[in-house]
């Protein structure tokens, strides 16, 4: 099946979504729309503006439809990409300038719109800011769509793949990926892109392999060429030889059999070789994820990120709506615990709804977010607290406050909770009067004052995602400094050790619910430092459990003790990685 007359070529890119695929390439080249230029009859100028309006409305409808599809098939986070596209269509500067250009030149509206958009795209793409540069991509995508609608052209060819294909493209825009024929896509390869590009998000959610950043691959291949895509090592092999195919067949078999071994072992309890039982819980964002929580045998939910209920709603969800969501998770998982975190908006999770409540901030990660917002908007906070309390009558519910900075804030939040309890009692509404309340430890000031927080907390959960960014002063979403975001920095280890020791002194259990908990390279370190439970995205539980079952707690403690004596983050990482590799072998 391979082409023996052609030489095998190995191209290195960035591994973006795991898996291996072999098949024929579909080269997707987005044809730039050809725009005719002509003068519009002055008597028809009103019609021309109306034609522009219709194209904008039509584009808006198409994007809203794609958004709804993505939300249903992939998830709300990915669907939110299209909000940026809808915003482009509302941009009065872009629309107003187009109409003014039309009025002054009399050129057809396509020509005017394209000219104005290209000017904006150029300006955006030259700005030295990752976020704004990405807006150029959004604008380019929307411009193409509006032009296609003005010219009566149909959508791209990605939704009509003739057969199963490896899709190779210079880049894949959000609307391209939304129209991608999922059943026929074997893998995705792009010339451009980073690990966080849209194509990657989509490939991961489709569970197909992806390699990005392969430079000028689109210029070296044509549709129909045969290729292997190795999403583990970020390699694309064009015209693979029989022996390469054989080798990859074996690699694929090994990886598949390892993954099925992981899933098989996941049915067993999380107990170390020296008999210590470890609690592995799940992080969820929506109540309907409880099915996945059960499938992966998580021991309850360690973090229910409730902001997603708010982020995708047209208005603030009512007490009753929230109650239904929390109750369904609590009841489905009872008697296992569900830790519901109160609203953590702001920072990387802005709320588009009721934008007037959120001032524009230069530094949102250190701004008006999470518990700070809730304590100032107690009507919103109380609706949520009452909903959680009501759900506690239907399962084992715990309450957790995000971004607590110290004991006074904790006491203020608990005072609001006490008011909610009184109100429910007056209503005769049942709830768990002994509900456990805890704090996320993700701000250094909270980590330094565990003893002061202890009297008001039944548990602590360390949010390493934020704790690391605040400890190291590394913005967690800034690509430019991403390499400096080091979970194995000695400052992080010492802080974790301090939190655990202080908490245990006061008899309070500690879990970790940041991304570190679900990385099998780090979980032994966390357990060795004395953390009582790990909470992670459910799909990571099999890998972490496999490692837990392959190690002794004594070894994990020794790893942590040694790591605490080392000064270099890289060296500590290397020890953790070696610990992992020594215990987890693919064959
Ligand atoms: C964290 O900060 O580690 C955490 C779990 O919270 P989030 O990622 O939602 O900020
Ligand atoms: Mg956080």
Structure commentary:
The protein is of the alpha/beta class. It folds into 3 domains: 9-30 and 157-242, 3-Layer(bba) Sandwich (Glucose Oxidase, domain 1); 42-151, Enzyme I, Chain A, domain 2 (Orthogonal Bundle); 270-399 and 406-440 and 511-583, Alpha-Beta Barrel (TIM Barrel). The protein is built from 23 helices and 16 strands. The radius of gyration is 27 Å and the shape is globular. The model has no long low-confidence stretch (mean pLDDT 88). The chain binds phosphoenolpyruvate (PEP) and magnesium ion (MG). The site of phosphoenolpyruvate has 10 residues, from strand 10 and helix 18.
Number of strands: 16
Which small-molecule ligands are present, each listed once?
phosphoenolpyruvate, magnesium ion
Helicity range: 40-55%
**Based on CA inertia axes, which overall geometry fits?**
globular
CATH class of the largest domain: Alpha Beta
What is the annotated CATH architecture of the largest domain? Answer: Alpha-Beta Barrel
User: What is the average per-residue confidence, as pLDDT, rounded to a whole number?
Assistant: 88
* Structural class designation: alpha/beta
Q: Biggest sheet, in brief?
A: 8 strands, mixed
Low-confidence stretches: none
CATH superfamily of the largest domain: Phosphoenolpyruvate-binding domains
Fraction in beta strands: 5-15%
How many separate structural domains?
A: 3
Radius of gyration: 27 Å
List the total number of helices: 23
Q: How far apart are the termini?
A: 29 Å
Strand order of the largest sheet: 1-8-7-3-4-5-6-2
CATH topology of the largest domain: TIM Barrel
């Amino acid at each position: 099946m391979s082409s023996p007359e052609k030489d095998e070529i190995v191209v290195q890119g960035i591994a973006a979504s795991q898996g291996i695929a072999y098949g024929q390439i579909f080269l997707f080249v987005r044809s730039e729309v050809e725009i005719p230029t002509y003068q519009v009859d002055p008597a028809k100028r009103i019609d021309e503006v109306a034609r522009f309006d219709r194209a904008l409305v039509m584009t808006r409808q198409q994007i809203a439809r794609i958004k709804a599809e993505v939300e249903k098939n992939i998830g709300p986070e990915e669907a939110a990409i299209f909000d940026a596209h809808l915003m482009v269509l509302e941009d009065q500067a872009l629309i107003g300038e187009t109409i003014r250009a039309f009025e002054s030149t009399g050129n057809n509206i396509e020509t005017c719109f394209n000219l104005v958009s290209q000017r904006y795209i150029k300006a955006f793409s030259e700005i030295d800011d990752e976020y704004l540069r990405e807006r150029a991509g959004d604008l380019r995508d929307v411009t193409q769509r509006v032009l296609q609608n003005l010219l009566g052209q149909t959508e791209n060819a990605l939704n009509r793949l003739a057969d199963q294909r490896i899709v190779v493209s210079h880049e894949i825009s959000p609307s391209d990926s939304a129209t991608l024929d999922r059943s026929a896509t074997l893998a995705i390869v792009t010339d451009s892109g980073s690990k966080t590009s849209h194509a990657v998000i989509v490939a991961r959610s489709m569970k197909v392999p992806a390699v990005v950043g392969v430079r000028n691959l689109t210029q070296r291949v044509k549709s129909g060429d045969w290729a292997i895509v190795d999403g583990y090592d970020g390699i694309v092999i064009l015209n693979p030889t029989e022996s390469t195919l054989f080798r990859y067949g074996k690699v694929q078999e090994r990886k598949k059999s390892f993954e099925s071994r992981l899933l098989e072992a996941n049915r067993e309890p999380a107990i170390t070789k020296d008999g210590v039982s470890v609690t592995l819980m799940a992080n969820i964002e929506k109540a309907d994820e409880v099915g996945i929580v059960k499938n992966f045998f998580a021991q309850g939910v360690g973090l229910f990120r409730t902001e997603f209920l708010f982020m995708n709603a047209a208005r603030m969800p009512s007490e009753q709506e929230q109650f239904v969501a929390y109750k369904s998770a609590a009841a489905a998982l009872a008697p296992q615990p569900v830790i519901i975190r109160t609203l953590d908006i702001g920072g990387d999770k802005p709320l588009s709804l009721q934008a007037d409540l959120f001032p524009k901030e230069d530094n949102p990660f250190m701004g008006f977010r999470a518990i700070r917002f809730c304590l100032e908007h107690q009507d919103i906070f109380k609706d949520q607290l009452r909903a959680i309390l009501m759900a506690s009558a239907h399962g084992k519910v715990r309450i957790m406050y995000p971004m607590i900075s110290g004991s006074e804030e904790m006491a203020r939040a608990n005072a609001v909770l006490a008011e909610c309890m009184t109100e429910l009692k007056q209503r005769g509404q049942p709830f768990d009067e002994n509900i456990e309340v805890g704090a996320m430890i993700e701000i250094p000031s909270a980590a330094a004052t565990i003893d002061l927080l202890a009297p008001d907390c039944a548990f602590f959960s360390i949010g390493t995602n934020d704790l690391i960014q605040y400890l190291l002063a590394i913005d967690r979403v800034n690509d430019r400094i991403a390499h400096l975001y080091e979970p194995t920095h000695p400052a992080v280890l010492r802080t974790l050790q301090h939190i655990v020791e202080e908490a245990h002194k006061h008899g309070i259990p500690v879990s970790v619910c940041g991304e570190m908990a679900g990385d099998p390279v780090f979980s032994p370190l966390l357990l060795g430092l004395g953390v009582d439970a790990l909470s992670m995205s459910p799909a990571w539980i099999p890998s972490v459990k496999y490692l837990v079952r392959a190690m002794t707690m004594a070894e994990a403690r020794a790893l942590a003790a040694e790591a605490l004596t080392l000064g270099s983050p890289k060296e500590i990482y290397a020890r953790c990685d070696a610990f992992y590799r020594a215990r987890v072998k693919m064959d």
